[in-house]
Amino acid sequence: MHAFRPTNELARMDFSISPEGDVSWYTGTFSTDEKIAGREDLCGEHYAVPAVHACHLENNTCFAYMDGRRMVVYSCNQVPHTLRRNIAEAIGMPLGDVRVVKPFLGGGFGNKQDTMYEPLVALASQRLGGRCVAITLSREETFVNTRTRHGFDMTIAAAADEAGDLTHRGIRINSNGGSYAAHTHAVAAYAVTSNFQTYKASAVQIGESSTVYTNLPSAAAMRGYGIPQLNFAMESQMEDIARRNGWDPIDFRLQNINEAGFVDPFDKFTVRTCGLRECVEQGRRLCDWDRKRKEYDAFNKTSPNLKKGLGMALFSYKIGVYPLQLESGSCRIVMNEDGSAQIMVGCAELGQGSDTAMCQIVSQITTIPEQKLSVCSAQDTDITPYDNGAYASRQTYISGSGAKLAAEKLVDTILTHAARTYKLPKDELRLASEQIWHRDSAVCTLAQLCTYINFVNDQKTDTDHITAEATFTMKNICLAYGVSFMDLEVDVPVGKVKIRKVYCLQDSGKIINPQLAEGQMHGGVAMGIGYALGEQMLFDAATGRPLNNNLLDYKIPTCMDIPDMEIRFVETHEDSAPFGAKGLAEPPLIPQAAAVRNAILHATGVGMHKLPMNPQNLVHAFGEAGLIAQ
User: Fold this and answer.
1) What is the distance between the alpha carbons of residues 594 and 240, in angstroms, rounded to a whole number?
2) Are 593 and 499 in contact (CB under 8 A)?
């Protein structure tokens, strides 16, 4: 059930973009023949993607109890400080009387970003004299009673001139928001605006969106925040335009991509770094595009049942959400007498490795080895400083900036104490290799200074427990870019797709931790392949009853289904980021479905317009195309 109509519209956004980049808002509608409003000669193609679930390892759970006059809530939530505010407002308590603790999480992918059952357990505890009240969801309940990825019905259109330059682009999205308003229209609006961040057009670009209530599970944030849906339509259409005109899909895309210096027409920020062209060109060589495309074309002419295809899709993804809201991340560092330190951050570790990244950033600035740094993985709103939380792949970019600033303040404090203690000019001191240096001579170790300052008062120096805290407010946005190449085989009579190899190249700025980054890429590719080939939430059309809300019937890739991957990073240096790093976690998922679709198109000549591309849907499409007997 992924087809729906925009009845009971919640919200809508209509606009056009001039060649100069100015946005004009207007009221427009699609005609019944799916032509883009304002361009009656520009007929759109329809694409549909279903609702899917994050399938994180840990089910959603929370519990609450009263500690004296204060409410304590434990929750598997990605944004604990936001959750505290929502709970306080919901149950009518002062903000300072609510404490939220987020332990180490078993995944989330955005599904744990919303306030869910926490106000309910808090209210129940309040009414029951402060007793502990818990709600723990089963897997079946997690599927339908938390959040899903939005199902989209999309009509997308574009026109190119004889030289291969895009002249007009437009998109219309109808989004299935489910039963209740969660992120609802924000996802559809975000997807529409993102349609104009990857490719340029020399004339007018048009976008429309609407979101509707339906009697299905509520949809909200899920890895990619509407861009995987949009990317499937956008990159499928780019492939089809190139194919119809006999253009190489890579050359056509490279001719029309935005590059560094592009000004986003909505948020008005300037893209400072863009490694997309290099990602595509390097990937072309890596996957042997030119040779394999010709070789597979020749093979497919003589092979009636087994077909080979090589397809690709590229993407862009905005890191952070400024200026929609202020983006801030805080960090506190507390020194110990032995020269080790504790790092407290409000950003939420949920398996993506942000704690490790924060540790590396602090270590790089302070020269304290990582094994002497401890990161508090459990966020506690009574203890850990404020952070907006885990979303929009923002934590290394924004929270990492807070960690870097706090580490710089810590170094300054340490050198100030050293200068006073040893009566040396501060500007001639430096911290390196866990020692204080005056020019080329070591003055003392960091541990010696921390011990002395903590315990000794010689009438000249006050004792001090050395700490530093900083909040970084990000007033920039950056874009991550990348491309995926899919090398696959299609067994046409049974509709079986076997992915032989995936080549993924990504510009996420400077890579802080290559091993963690590659792990994120592998996870994103696997999730994207599941979205492409099998995943969909099914419901009884008459009753709305879920049909596959368990991990037996809902098919996600297992370790046996994951193909070989070749991962490459094209490193740019983003000046607004700590050490030049951009966000990384969500982008690897985005282009996979379109890349699979375009490889199937190359192999069979059949372009799919809906997900998933499972055997049932493929056999039906192949039959309609005359590849197999109906």
Assistant:
1) 12
2) no
The rounded distance, in Å, linking the Cα atoms of 488 and 596 is 8
CATH topology of domain 328-473: Aldehyde Oxidoreductase; domain 4 (3.30.365)
Q: Does the domain formed by 1-54+147-256 have CATH 3.30.365.10? A: yes
What are the two backbone dihedrals, phi and then psi, of residue 335, each rounded to the nearest 5 degrees?
A: -80, 145
Of 228, 233, 582, 172, the C-alpha closest to 400 is 582
Q: What angle, rounded to 10 degrees, do the helices at 592-604 and 289-302 form? A: 50
pTM for this one? 0.92
The predicted structure's pLDDT at residue 268: 83
Residues 511, 561: Cα–Cα separation, whole Å: 28
Cβ neighbours of 479 (radius 10 Å): 27
Give Cα separations from 478 to 43, 434, 588 (angstroms): 33, 34, 16
Taking the C-alpha atoms of residue 211 and residue 181, their distance in angstroms, rounded to an integer, is: 10
How does residue 457 score in pLDDT terms, banded at 50, 70 and 90? low
Nearest to 390, CA basis, from 398, 402, 382: 398
Helix, strand, coil distribution of the chain in percent, nearest 5: 30, 25, 40
Burial 91-106 (b: 16+ CB within 10 A, else e): bebeeeebbbbbeebe
CATH (residue range 61-138): 3.30.365.10
Choose the CATH number for 262-319+478-538+560-630 among 3.40.50.150, 3.30.70.100, 3.30.365.10, 1.10.3720.10: 3.30.365.10
320-330 per-residue burial string, b: 16 or more CB within 10 A, e: under 16: bbbeeeebbbb
- Whether 449 and 418 have beta carbons less than 8 Å apart is answered as yes
Per-residue pLDDT band for 31 (boundaries 50, 70, 90) equals very low
Residue ranges covered by each domain of the chain:
1-54+147-256, 61-138, 262-319+478-538+560-630, 328-473
Residue among 469, 475, 470, 468 at smallest CA distance from 577: 475
User: How many whole angstroms separate alpha carbon 335 and alpha carbon 446?
Assistant: 10
H-type helices in 31-133, by residue range?
Answer: 80-91, 118-127
State pLDDT tens for residues 285-321: 999 999 999 999 999 999 999 999 999 999 999 999 8
Amino acid at 327: E
Neighbours of 517 (CB within 10 A): 22
